[in-house]
Description:
single chain; 84 residues; mainly alpha; 2 domains
Amino acid sequence: MTAPxxxxxxxxxxxxxxxxxxxxxxxxxxxxxxxxCMYAFRKPFAVATFAGVHVGPLGLKSLLVMSQVCGYALSxxxxxxxVS
Length: 84
């Protein structure tokens, strides 16, 4: 017994009916919005002071930046595996 195919969302159906320029414009707008929203998460690292706060041998700011870089790298690996 096989599962029924997943239902397409309204956005998927709408994009499937659009021309290539409209689809491209939608993709650019979504990518820009996602990238722009990341500044809300990155800004506290640049603004906040972490003087005297240590987690093991590392400072808290170093640990947070390293975790952000690792998360970014993992998202790239996952994206490459899923997209390809």
